[in-house]
Amino acid sequence: MTAWFTDNGLxxxxxxxxxxxxxxxxxMVAVGLNLVFGVLRIVNVAHGSLFAIGAxxxxxxxxxxxxxxxxxxxxxxxxxxxxxxxxxVLGPPIERLVLRRVYGHEDALxxxxxFALFMILEDVQKLVWGVQPVAxxxxxxxxxxxDVPFGEDVIPFTAYQLFVLPGLAxxxxxxxxxxxxxxLTGRVIVAVTTDKEAAMAMGIDATRVTLLTFTFGAALxxxxxxxxxxxxxxxxGVGAQTIVLSFAVVATAxxxxxxxxxxxxxxxxxxxxxxxxxxxxxxxxxxxxxMVAVLxxxxxxxxxxxxxxxx
Amino acid sequence: MTHALTRRQAxxxxxxxxxxxxxxxxxxxxxxxxELKVGICTFLSGSASVFxxxxxxxxxxxxxxxxxxxxxxxxxxxxYFVDEAPGxxxxxxxxxxxxxxEGVHIIFAAISSGSCLxxxxxxxxxxxxxxxxxxxxxRIFEEGNHPYAFRTQGYGAPEVLAPLLYxxxxxxxxxxxxxxxxxxxxxxxxxxxxxxxxxxxxxxxRVVAELFPRLGATDYSTEVTRLLASRPDxxxxxxxxxxxxxxxxxxxERRLFERSTFVLPVAEASLQMLGRTMAAGxxxxxxxxxxxxxxxxxxxxxxAKFVADYRARFNEYPIYPCHHMAQAISAMQAGFAKAIAAxxxxxxxxxELANAFRGLTFDTPTSSITLREDGQGLEDQIVGLSxxxxxxxxxxxxxxxxxxxxxxSTPVGQKSVEWMKTLKPDILAQMPAAIAG
Lengths: 311, 437
Fold this sequence. Notes:
The complex is a heterodimer. By secondary structure, chain A is mainly α. Chain A is built from twelve helices and two strands. Chain A has helices spanning 2-40, 47-67, 74-98, 107-129, 138-143, 159-182, 184-194, 196-201, 206-228, 238-253, 258-278, 286-297, and strands at residues 145-150, 153-158. The mean pLDDT of chain A is 89. Chain B is α/β, with parallel strands linked by helices. Chain B folds into two domains: 36-154 and 298-371, Response regulator (Rossmann fold, 3-Layer(aba) Sandwich); 157-286 and 380-430, 3-Layer(aba) Sandwich (Rossmann fold). In chain B, 45% of the residues lie in helices and 16% in strands. Chain B has helices at residues 7-27, 49-68, 88-102, 113-126, 139-142, 156-170, 185-201, 221-230, 241-253, 256-259, 268-274, 300-314, 320-342, 350-357, 405-408, 416-421, and strands spanning 36-42, 77-83, 106-108, 130-132, 149-151, 176-180, 206-211, 234-236, 261-264, 283-285, 361-363, 368-371, 377-378, 381-387, 396-403. Chain B is globular, with a radius of gyration of 24 Å. Chain A binds chain B through residues 10-11, 14-15, 17-19, 21-22, 25, 122-123, 126, 130-133, 135, 137, 140-141, 145, 150, 153, 155-158, 161, 228, 231-238, 240-242, 272-273, 276-277, 280-281, 283-284, and chain B through 45-47, 49-50, 52-54, 183, 209-214, 216-219, 221-223, 225-226, 228-229, 231, 241-242, 245-246, 249-250, 253-255, 270, 272-273, 277, 316. Chain B: Belongs to the leucine-binding protein family. Chain B: Pfam families: Peripla_BP_6 (PF13458). Chain B: It comes from Siccirubricoccus deserti. Chain B: This is ABC transporter substrate-binding protein. Chain B: Keywords: Amino-acid transport, Signal, Transport.
C-alpha cells in the first residue's frame, strides 16, 4: 500500500487539483437545485436548462463585448451579468406561471411539468443559438496557465481552473451560509424550508419567499453555466448532462442541504478524478456509485434529516 | 343537374375501384406518384444535432434544386424528417409510420449506428429501399445480408485505417499512444479497429492511457492532465461535435498539442468552430474525401457551387454530414434514373428500385462512389496535416493523401477487426503520394 502511494503520490496530487475544479463547477449547479427543493419541495428538471441558458448568455455577451473591442477582463462581468439576467428574466415567470400551479401535487406531476419546461427551453436554446457549438474562452485565456511541478516535469493548469472556480465556489458557499443564517430574508427562507405552515402562521409571506428563492436558484444555475462556459463548448443537450449529475450530488447530500451539496460535490469530483487516473473504465459511473453507496447507508443523504410522514 | 350518391352506389364504386387497383397490382404496373416521398432520419435535437441539422439544411437546399429542375423522373421530391434523438425504439416506430402511414418511397437512415442497426432489419421486413446516409458501424453488412439497404458513403474501418496508415508514414518512430474516445459504440469500435491495425502494422507501441469519457461530456480537464502526465507520442481521438471542440480547446490552452501528435479522424466537422484554436501539424480526417479544399475534385464546379450555395444560405461552410447527405441524394437520383430506364420509362416498384441500387455507381462533387454487392459504398478517404491558409478562417489539411476506397475497406465477407489483424506493413508501400493541397 505504501509502495503504491510512493509510486502514485504525484498522480494523486494532480487528481486532487482536477477534482477540486470539477467539484466547484458541479457544486455551483447543485446548490441552486438544492435550495429550490428545500423551499419549493419541487425537483426542478428545468434547472439544467437554466444552467445552459446562463452559459449561452454569458458566452454571447462575452463575444459581443470582444467584438466591440472591450478587453478580455470585461468578459468576467459578462459571467455575472448573464446570471442576473437569466435569473431575473426567466425565474419569476416560471415560478408564477408554471410551478405555482403544481405545489402540493404528486411528485410525478411536478416532474412531468418541469420536464416539459425543460423540453421547451431546450428548443428555445436551439432557436436562439442554433445547434453548432458556441464557445467563449476569453476569461480562461485571460488568466493564462500555471505550471504545477510534477517530478522533473511540469503540468500546465489554467489559472481559471486552479483558482477562479474553486475560489468562487467557496465564496458562494460562504455567502449563502451567511445570507441564510445572518440576514432576515435568509432566516425567513430557512423558516419556510423548515415548516412552511408554521412560518405562514407567524405572518411570513410564503408566496413571496418561494418566488424569491426560485429566482435566486435560477440565477445560481445560470451562474454555474456562466462559470462553466469559458472551459467548454455549448451544444444542445448540455443542460441534460448537467442536471443528471446535479441530481446525484443533491441526492448524496440530502435534499435541501447547502453545505451537504458542497461536501458531496467534493466527494463526487474527487472520486471521478481519481477514477480517470487509476480506473478510467469507472469514470462515468463513479458519481452514481458514490450516490448509491451513500443512500444505502443513509437513505436521507449525507446531511439529510429523516422526515416524519403525516398520515 | 346533380345526383346524390347513394350508399349502395358508393359501396359498389369502392369495390370496383378496389378490384381495378388489385388487378393493376398483379400486372406489376406502377403508377407514377404525384410526389416522391423521402423519409429522412436525422438528429434534430440533442448533442448530435450539430450533425443532423446541417445535414437537414443541405437536404432542403438540394431538394429545392431538384424540384426546380423538374424533380426525379418528372416527379417532385418531398422530404419527411424524423428525429433520431429520442432513441431507437422511437425511431423504429417512426420508420413504420413513414412507410405505412406516409407511404414514403425511400428512406434515408441515419446518423447513429444504433439507429442504422435498428432500421436495416426493418428495410428487410418492409421491403423498403433504405440508404444509410451517415452511420459508420461496420457491423451492418458484416453481420447480415440486407437486400434493401445501401450505404452511400464509407464506414468505420476505412475511416480508422486511413489515418493510421497516414500516421505510420508521417511519424513512423512513435512508441507510445493514448486514446481518448467517447464512451459509446463508435468510440469503442473505432479504438478496437485502430488497436488491431496498429498491433499488426507496428507491434510494440505502448498504450499509456485508454480514456472513454461519457458522450456529451462538458469538461475534459482531468483527462488533459492525465495525458500531459503520461506524455504519449501520439494521442488518438475519434470524438466529434461539441465533445471534440471542448477537448481541443482545453488541450490547446494547456499546451498538450505541443507535447504530442494528435490524430483526429473526425476533425473536419469541428474545425470551423475551433478556428485558430486548432494547432497546425496534426493528423485530421473527414470520414471520406469531401474536404471543401479537395485538391483534385472530380467536378470542381459542382463542389464550388455546393459550398457557395450552402454558405450563402446558412452562413457557414458545409461540414461532412452535409456532404454525406448530398451523396445520398445523388445516389437516390442515380438509383431512380437507373430503375426507370430499366423499366422503359415506367415507375419502379420497391423491389425494382432496390435492384437498381446494387452495383450502382454515382458521382459526387469530389469523386464517384460504387455500391458493392453487399450494399456498402466505396468512398475514398483523404487524410492530411492541419494547416492554415488565406482561403479559410480555420484549419484545413495539407499534404493530403487520397486513399483509394478499395485499399482501406474490408473485403466483402470479412470482419473488419479480424481483417485489420491480417494487415502487413507492405500496405504502406501502396499508399499514394501526398498532395500539397
